[in-house]
Amino acid sequence: KASKLAMDKHLSKMVAKTESVPTPEWILIKSDSYSTQLLNENALKFDFPYIVKPADEGSTVGLSLVNNIDEIENAIEVAGEHSTSILVEQYIPGRELTVGILGTKALPIVEIISDHELYDYECKYSKGKSQYKVPADLPEKVTRKIQDDALKIYKAIGCRHYGRVDFRLNEKNEHYFLEINTLPGMTSTSLLPMAAQAAGLDFPDLVDTIIKIAMVDQ
Where are the beta strands (DSSP E) in 91-216? Predict the structure, then answer.
C-alpha cells in the first residue's frame, strides 16, 4: 500500500499537503483528454517554468523542464509515452536535496550537484555526472526541519524499514517536497548508501541493518 501510494506523485503530494509539508504547486492532467485552454486556466495559479512528468514513474523518466507555453505540448507528449497521468508542477529553482531514512531515523542530508540543469536519468546513473555533499552544508535548523518533514511523510504514507525523500531548497532556504521512494537504489552511485556511510554505516552494515529491522518488524 505504501509503495503504491508513494509511486503516485499526485497522491503523495496530497499527503504532504495534509501533513503541512510544503510541496510545489501542481495540477494533474490526463494525456488523452487534456485541452490547452483547460491547462492554461489551471496553470495560471503558478508561473513558468514548469516541470512536466509522469505521475507514476521514477528515475526522472519522461520529465521535462518547460519554460513557456510553446514547449508544453511536446513535454506532455514525452511524459505521455510513459503514463496517461501527468503532473504539471511549479519548478523550484535552487538546490537538490534528499533524505535517506533507516527504520525511523533520518540519515544525513545529501545535496546533489549535477552537470545538467536537472538531475536527470544520465546524471543519476553515470559516474562523474554529479557531485555530492554529505552532510549537505545547511544551517542546523534547516537540516532538522527537512529531516523532520521527511519522517513525517514517510510515516504518514505508511513506509517501513527504509526509504528516501526528495526535496528542492530555494534561495531562502525554504524546502519543498517532491517525492518519496520506497525502494531507493543500492548501486555505487546511489544516495541512500552514501547517506548511511556519512552516518557511520558501510554498505554491508547498511544491508545488515535493513535485514534486522525487517525481521523485527514482521
Answer: 95-102, 105-114, 130-133, 162-169, 175-181
Question: At CB < 8 A and 24+ separation, what contacts does 44-51 make?
Answer: 46/90, 47/90, 48/91, 49/91, 50/75, 50/88, 50/89, 50/90, 50/91, 51/24, 51/87, 51/88, 51/89, 51/90, 51/91
Scored b (16 or more CB within 10 A) or e, 36-65 reads eeebeeebeebeebbbbbbbbbbebebbbb
| Contact predicate 85/109, CB 8 Å | no
As given in the structure block, the three cell numbers for residue 181 are: 521512494
Q: Mind listing the pLDDT tens digit for each residue in 86-97?
A: 999 999 999 999
Reported pTM = 0.88
What strands lie across the sheet with 105-114, from one edge to the other?
130-133, 105-114, 95-102, 162-169, 175-181
C-alpha cell recorded at residue 78: 514525452
- How far does CA 153 lie from the centroid of its chain? 12
DSSP state of 72: H
Give the phi and the psi of residue 41 in degrees, each rounded to 5.
Answer: -65, -40
Q: How far apart are CA 154 and CA 180, in angstroms?
A: 8
The torsion angles phi and psi of 115, rounded to 5 degrees, stand at -70, -25
* Rounded-to-integer distance, Cα 23 and Cα 146, Å: 12
Nearest Cα to 143, choosing from 132, 156, 134?
Answer: 134
Residue with cell 513558468: 48
User: With bands split at pLDDT 50, 70 and 90, how would you rate the model's confidence at 47?
Assistant: confident
Q: How far is CA 195 from the centre of its chain?
A: 16
